[in-house]
Amino acid sequence: MDEADAFRLLGLLALVSSGLVFARQIRLGEAARNAAIWVGLAALLLVGYSFRAELTQAYLRVRSELIPAYAVPTTDRSMVITASDDGGFYVMGSVNGTAVKFVIDTGANGVLLSPDDAARAGLDVGALKFSSPAETANGVGYSAPVTLAALNVGDMKLANIPAAVNKAPMSSSLLGMAFLRRLDSFEVRGDQLTLKWKG
Question: With 80 as the cut, is the pLDDT of residue 19 above it?
Fold first, then answer.
């Protein structure tokens, strides 16, 4: 054995002996408890990963009950919306990538954006011509026609959608019959609205 090997061996012995001295200071009960905690955490993570699809669906359902505007996908081509406390059906969507909260209104003809939502979605509201009159509950209202590059509602994605921007402020943008006619079907049962669409 040369001098370098001897130093390496001495270093290894020092490391092992220091580990043994340190191990004697650890209580076996505490070490067993810590090991059991780590094993339990690993098992919990494994179970969570194995049931990730079911846990995601459960999370979406709970979120839908707490915040009804979030739709719950039931299949690749359908979703369920829970009625809000006022009985209306609200749904979170997006216009040109900007989050917008809509109310589904069978009494409205088309897709109608509030001025605030339109501006947030990148539309130049100041340059629009509000020349289209429409009867509303508050009298005659005026809107400006636009085309939305992208309209997403839940997992439903639409492109180049004719819509309008209302001149007067609104509490929520509307999805009317022009949107609902694009669906394969829609059905209300109790406090749930089911939307189904084709690919």
Answer: no
Burial 97-122 (b: 16+ CB within 10 A, else e): eeebebbbbeebebbbbbbebbebbe
Judge whether 113 and 164 are in contact, CB under 8 Å: yes
3-state secondary structure at position 119:
helix
Fold of 68-196: Cathepsin D, subunit A; domain 1 (2.40.70)
SS3 at position 180? helix
Say if residues 152 and 158 touch (Cβ distance below 8 Å).
Answer: yes
Exposure of 27 by Cβ count < 10 A (0-12 exposed, 13-18 middle, 19+ buried)? exposed
Domain limits, the chain? 3-50, 68-196
Tens digit of each residue's pLDDT (9 = 90 or more) over 124-175:
999 999 988 876 655 678 999 999 999 999 889 999 999 999 999 988 999 9
Check: pTM over 0.70? Answer yes or no. Answer: no
SS3 194: strand
Cβ atoms of residues 170 and 114 within 8 Å: yes
Number of H helices, E strands in the chain: 5, 11
